[in-house]
């Protein structure tokens, strides 16, 4: 889901954290419908 630029950028940990939060919210929304 991430490009090579993300993994070698200034904030790779934050990028993964935000992606995980986004995925969690999306999965939660799917379970509610």
Describe this structure in words.
With 33 residues, the protein is mainly α. 76% of the residues lie in helices and 0% in strands. The chain has helices spanning 4-7, 12-32. The longest helix is centred in the middle third of the chain and has 21 residues, at 12-32.
Question: Which key features would you list for this structure?
Answer:
elongated, 33 residues, mainly alpha
Helix content: over 70%
Please tell me how large the radius of gyration is: 12 Å
Mean pLDDT: 87
Number of helices: 2
List segments where confidence is low: pLDDT < 50 over at least 5 consecutive residues. none
**Topology as a string of helices (H) and strands (E):** HH
Distance between the termini: 25 Å
Strand content: under 5%
Shape: elongated
- Main pleated sheet: none
Structural class: mainly alpha
User: How many beta strands in the DSSP annotation?
Assistant: 0
What's the SSE blueprint?
Layout: H1 4-7, H2 12-32
Question: What can be said about this structure in brief?
Answer:
With about 35 residues, this protein is mostly helical. It has two helices and no strands. About 75% of the residues lie in helices and about 0% in strands.
